[in-house]
Amino acid sequence: MKIGKVALILALTVCGSSSLMGAEVLTAARSTLEKWVEARRVLAEERTQWLAEEKTLNDDITFLKIEIEGLRKAVADSMMEMTTADSEQNEFSQSIATQEQAIEVIRQAVPGFEKRILALSTIFPAVFREKVATQLRRIPDPDSGRQLDVSLGDRIQNIISLLNNVEYFNKVITPSSELREKENGEIFEVKTLYLGFGQAYFVDENQVNAGFGYPVIGKGWVWQDRPEIAEAVGLAVLAADNRHPAEFVNVPVEIKETD
Q1: What is the pLDDT of residue 242?
Q2: Which of 149, 182, 203, 221 could lock onto 210 through a cystine, CB 3.0 to 4.6 A?
Q3: How does DSSP assign the chain, residue by residue?
């Protein structure tokens, strides 16, 4: 009896031990499965997040490539514009240099023109000198202490204006009422016809006193009394005043060579 009870107890013990071992294995297996499922879930979430981030990164890379290409084009355009600007600046600088050289040539030539005009002004008749008196006063006279604050541009314009007036006067016949003095000191009024700066003829109202003159630069006009041409000059004066039909008249001509 005692032996049988012991065997039964052992058998129960063995069976109990076996049951306990199976439960532990099952628990371990369940725990492992849960960890595996959790790992798969986490992996799936990580993969989904990575795919989303990968798309964002690809979009950013594409955008950056476009930006880089745009910057490269902008740099290339800027370099081209800089090259063009440098070329234009060089041309502009060369143009300025050329103009400055031309201005310097003019600056050196202007005093010579003014000097020649002053010399020429010695043969300006009073009727013409009155017309250009203001322009003559604008010319700096190197032989006087008078200083004029006149710009180069104004001096050039003044020279051109004077020369235009000289050219016009030299192409027309200009009548002028003037006073002349005889050798005996008698003063009488005459009508003078200036044929430009080449020749001039005068006659008084009674056609008694008459003569002609010619210019000498530096001295003015040289006059000669020639009473015998009074009638011819008188007719010319009447024609110039539209008081007589124009006709040919014989008058002396004196030509002097000038330097």
Answers
A1: 81
A2: 203
A3: -HHHHHHHHHHHHHHHHHHHHHHHHHHHHHHHHHHHHHHHHHHHHHHHHHHHHHHHHHHHHHHHHHHHHHHHHHHHHHHHHHHHHHHHHHHHHHHHHHHHHHHHHHHHHHHHHHHHHHHHGGG--HHHHTTTHHHHHTS--TTSS------HHHHHHHHHHHHHHHHHHTTSEEEEEEEEE-TTS-EEEEEEEEETTTEEEEEETTS-SEEEEEEETTTEEEEEE-GGGHHHHHHHHHHHTTSS---------------
